[in-house]
Amino acid sequence: MSRPKQEEYTSFFSNYINLTTGNNYSELIKNHDEIICDFWTKIPFEKWMYSYADHKWSIKQLFQHVIDTERILAFRALSIARKEPHPLMSFNENEYAKNGDAKNRDPLSMINEFRFLRKSTNHLYDSFNNKEKILTGKVVDKIISVSALGFIIIGHSLHHINVCKKHYGV
Asked: Rounded distance, CA 10 to CA 8, Å?
């Protein structure tokens, strides 16, 4: 699986993909996985409920969003790899955050969940053969490839780590 071409995803995802380094999913994991997983372990306990402004997510909510989004994007990759004939649904991240119960979750439990999820996503991508990796499907009415979704998953995590550093001071 090589870096996705621009026709494999919409411009909305360019920022995420551009945050990644590596020419294939294995290189992404080598370059980013440890950084992505370890970042969350360094957040002081007292900061998890912090929000930098009214109506902005707390760090817990932001992290739950990262977890939820990885699950959804991995499901999309699996669906496309298995040649799902129907367009996949979009999701409303704000509704997920509102309806998720991140504020009552233990940060350590979330960190452990995320580590298992990252491993699961990595195993999923290891299971895809070369033909599956280049398949494209639709989310609503937009084309996206299995390859692009792998890069987006990693880039999305990197994006939110950058948000945490810039706005949350962690």
From this structure: 7
Structure-token pair, residue 65? 């969003």
CA gap 20, 3 in Å, rounded: 10
- 126-163 pLDDT, tens digit per residue, is 999 999 999 999 999 999 999 999 999 999 999 999 99
Do residues 25 and 160 touch, judged by C-beta distance below 8 A? Answer: no
164-167: list long-range contacts, CB under 8 Å, 24+ apart: 164/39, 164/43, 164/59, 164/62, 167/52, 167/56
Q: Model pTM? A: 0.96
C-alpha span between 66 and 32 (Å, rounded): 15
Compute the C-alpha angle 114/118/120, nearest 5°.
115
